């Protein structure tokens, strides 16, 4: 999978950009606040249909403009395709794939796969379980539309169950009514859990290998899904039902649902030590990068094609050895790397950004 061309209009600080990219490593260099991250954001937007940087998408539109556009041309193993995303201050964004409008984000997922890594990805290791669940959910959704739809359905069920817990003061009526939502939550939630366990099982050997490679075999990475586990769907359903039942009084007291995949986490260990609590920032950064590189390999296994790799200002944070190993790994797929300064390599293709203008 390759990006052949990117066209931007009024996206962030870009008024008009039309650029062709190369199949190998594309170096995006320039001073700070010139638009390097914005460029990668536009590319990744075409992969998942939303931004990881803002909640309000209207902020993407250039100041004093009413509309913005991303148009990306992709070349896959067996076909070429084009994704057009149009933003308006007055209307919802619209998305077209090969000039055909889509109604739901789920129709975009899987059309163009990309892995994004930036210094902010340290949240994957350091911050809340929500950040690690987001990592899982974004990855699985790119390779499974069914999972994406399950997540959306689960969020609606969870919202309705929490609304009932919060607003119903008659405990007897609540306990009779809540079974309606429990049945649906168990059915959908158990399927989500099974998807996630399968993902962790696939991710682990690749993550171990990537981490061992980056650390010159000095560290051993391990992962554990923290939540309800089971040998199959029926087993997970049974356990989820039991724990949900046992938690009901607590749920009523607190006014929200305490059991389910929305509460699950990934435990991450390096040399059997909890990396979130006891790891150095350098170790945490290497673990986060190892997980992203492992994602790359899983996507290749699942789809038959390597996704695009987007590395935003990552090299400056790595020591010389890990930087060299990462750059060697990048030769496996089309890669975009941003930064302020780079040593020249004749095998790479260089682009300079200055205030929203790109020059080769």
What is the molecular shape?
globular
User: Which percent bin holds the helix content?
Assistant: 40-55%
Q: Report how far apart the termini are.
A: 22 Å
Helix/strand structural class: alpha/beta
Biggest sheet character: 6 strands, antiparallel
CATH fold naming of the largest domain: Glutathione S-transferase Yfyf (Class Pi), Chain A, domain 2
In the CATH scheme, the class of the largest domain would be Mainly Alpha
Give the number of domains. 2
Secondary-structure element string: EEEHEEEEEHHHHEHHEEHHEHEEE
The tally of strands reads 15
Level-2 CATH architecture of the largest domain: Up-down Bundle
Strands ordered across the widest β-sheet: 2-1-4-5-6-7
- Count of helical segments? 10
Question: What does the radius of gyration come to?
Answer: 22 Å
Kindly report the average pLDDT value: 93
Low-confidence stretches: none
Write out the CATH superfamily name of the largest domain.
RecF/RecN/SMC, N-terminal domain
User: How much of the sequence is in beta strands?
Assistant: 15-25%
Task: Offer a few descriptive terms.
360 residues, alpha/beta, Glutathione S-transferase Yfyf (Class Pi), Chain A, domain 2, 2 domains, 10 helices
Could you describe the 3D structure shown?
With 360 residues, the chain is of the alpha/beta class. It has two domains: 1-113 and 306-360, 3-Layer(aba) Sandwich (Rossmann fold); 122-304, RecF/RecN/SMC, N-terminal domain (Glutathione S-transferase Yfyf (Class Pi), Chain A, domain 2, Up-down Bundle), CATH 1.20.1050. It has ten helices and 15 strands. It has helices at residues 36-48, 123-126, 129-143, 145-167, 171-214, 233-246, 248-254, 275-278, 281-303, 320-330; strands at 2-11, 14-20, 25-29, 67-75, 80-88, 94-97, 100-102, 114-117, 221-226, 265-270, 273-274, 308-312, 335-339, 349-354, 357-359. The strands form three sheets. A six-stranded antiparallel sheet has the order 2-1-4-5-6-7, covered by helices on one side. Strand 4 and strand 5 (80-88) form a beta hairpin. It starts with a strand and ends with a strand. The model has no long low-confidence stretch (mean pLDDT 93).
């Amino acid at each position: 999978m390759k990006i052949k061309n990117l066209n931007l209009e009024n996206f962030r600080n870009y008024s008009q950009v039309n650029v062709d990219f190369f199949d190998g490593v594309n170096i995006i260099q320039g001073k700070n606040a010139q638009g390097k991250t914005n460029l990668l954001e536009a590319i990744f937007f075409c992969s998942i249909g939303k931004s990881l940087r803002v909640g309000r998408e209207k902020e993407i539109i250039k100041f004093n403009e009413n509309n913005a556009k991303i148009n990306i041309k992709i070349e896959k193993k067996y076909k070429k395709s084009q994704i057009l995303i149009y933003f308006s201050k007055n209307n919802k964004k619209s998305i077209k794939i090969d000039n055909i409008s889509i109604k739901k984000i789920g129709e975009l997922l899987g059309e163009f796969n990309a892995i994004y890594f930036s210094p902010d990805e340290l949240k994957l290791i350091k911050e809340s379980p929500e950040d690690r669940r987001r990592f899982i959910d974004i990855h699985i959704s790119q390779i499974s539309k069914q999972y994406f739809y399950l997540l959306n359905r689960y969020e609606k069920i969870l919202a309705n169950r929490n609304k009932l817990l919060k607003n119903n003061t008659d405990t007897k009526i609540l306990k009779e009514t809540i079974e309606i939502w429990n049945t649906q939550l168990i059915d959908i939630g158990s399927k989500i859990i099974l998807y996630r366990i399968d993902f962790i099982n696939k991710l682990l050997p690749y993550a171990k290998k990537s981490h061992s490679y980056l650390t010159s075999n000095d560290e051993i990475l391990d992962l554990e899904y923290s939540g309800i586990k089971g040998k199959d769907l029926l087993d997970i359903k049974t356990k989820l039902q039991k724990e949900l039942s046992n938690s009901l009084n607590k749920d009523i007291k607190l006014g929200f649902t305490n059991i389910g995949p929305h509460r699950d986490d990934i435990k991450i260990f390096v040399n059997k030590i909890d990396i979130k609590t006891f790891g150095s920032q350098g170790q945490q950064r290497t673990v986060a990068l190892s997980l992203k590189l492992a994602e790359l390999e899983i996507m290749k296994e699942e789809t038959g094609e390597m996704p695009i790799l987007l590395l935003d200002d990552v090299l400056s944070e790595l020591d010389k050895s890990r930087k060299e190993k990462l750059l060697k790994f990048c030769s496996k797929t089309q890669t975009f790397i941003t930064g302020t300064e780079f040593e020249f390599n004749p095998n790479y293709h260089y682009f300079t950004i200055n205030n929203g203008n790109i020059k080769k």
